[in-house]
Amino acid sequence: MAAFISSKAANDMKHILQKDELIKRIDTCLQMTSLPRDIYKPYIARPFQTSGFFDDLSPYIQIDSSGYILIQYERGIQMLHKRTKVADEVIYWILEDTIFLTVYIDMMRKYQVDNIQTHLPNDPSIHQQIVDRVNESFRTIGGLYEQWHHEGKRASIETPANK
Question: Fewest CB atoms within 10 Å of the CB: 6, 31, 112, 144?
């Protein structure tokens, strides 16, 4: 894995970035895309909330002096509790979730559905539009995050660490 870590990521391993710096970097990446900022803006700080309702399978991050704790819930049960020292993994994980969510919400707007009474059609062309827009967003961001997106790194991030 070390071969895939950029010099910036290696430097971040020595210095733990705080919430505001992580949010700033995520926002900078998302501003490069054509995604609607009014949709994604509320979601880039959500992973750092510490109380209240935790959305299913969304990333949540805690920061301490030794790094980042990656947390994920499903039906109110914590399903993932994993440590990393790599800020780029945290940023990428949040980008994956936020980009998909933003594209999905934008598609709901386009098709005028509320996801309660009405839903996006289960149609291959809709699925392909979502995939294409997510891929295009990562292509625009480029670099390590695009590489990790195409390698499916989210799955390895969301795999619990061996005990």
Answer: 112
